[in-house]
Specification:
Structural class: alpha+beta
Number of domains: 2
Mean pLDDT: 91
Helix content: 40-55%
Radius of gyration: 18 Å
Distance between the termini: 36 Å
Strand order of the largest sheet: 3-4-5
Shape: globular
Number of strands: 9
Length: about 220
């Protein structure tokens, strides 16, 4: 059975599909090109799976750019905030995710419509990003969790019910589903989670760039 690849808000059923998506994104660039915000979010999230991510990130990521290696293949370089840079292999990062990560993403999927509804309701009220002061639109904004973090809230929810996160049963979405994160099989548990999330989540609307900075720092 294929094991999912999961990082950030992205999940793929197989290593092949994750590799194809990474190659599709990087193929749009040439040497010395800087990644756009959307692709930078993708690869920064993927880099968190690198076994040496802390060392690669160093004092913090300023941006990511494309270079060519000795075989003329496209590769990625992390450009740090102190001006230094280092290569970081995205191929090295693509590996099956731990069951805990896959289940966590399934719980994120379960509240996806709640997050979208929050964003839709807030976009008319929150004119600028509270961090970067840039004007917000539906497409350049992200919903961010304040205290508690999503992971802490989920852990508290499961601990209250004495449920081990790795024991939560999942079902796969249909192949044509745009959201390839797994689905929690127990619908009663899903409804309990949505109610708990509603009562405990503290959300904030940020610009995509501000949300990315949190990941890169």
């Amino acid at each position: 059975m294929a094991k999912p690849i999961a990082f950030g808000d992205y999940q793929f059923r197989t290593k092949k599909s994750a590799t194809e998506e990474a190659r599709r994104r990087i193929s749009n660039y040439e040497a010395n090109d800087r990644l756009n915000a959307e692709d930078e979010m993708f690869f920064t999230s993927l880099f968190t799976l690198h076994s040496e991510f802390a060392e690669k990130k160093g004092v913090g990521i300023s941006y990511i750019k494309v270079q060519r290696d000795f075989h003329n293949n496209r590769c990625l370089y992390i450009c740090r905030v102190d001006g230094s840079e280092i290569d970081c292999s995205w191929v090295h990062c693509i590996q099956p995710a731990p069951q805990k990560t896959v289940v966590s993403m399934a719980f994120r999927r379960a509240v996806k419509q709640i997050i979208i509804a929050y964003k839709t309701a807030q976009i008319d009220n929150v004119v600028v990003c509270p961090i970067l002061k840039t004007k917000l639109t539906f497409y350049n904004s992200h919903v961010s969790y304040l205290s508690p973090s999503f992971e802490n809230m989920l852990n508290n929810f499961l601990d209250d019910r004495e449920i081990d996160i790795t024991s939560v049963a999942l079902v796969n979405p249909k192949p044509d589903d745009e959201d390839q994160r797994g689905k929690v099989a127990d619908q009663n548990l899903v409804e309990e989670w949505r109610s708990y999330h509603k009562n405990n989540a503290t959300l904030q609307l940020l610009s995509a760039e501000a949300n990315l900075r949190k990941l890169k720092s």
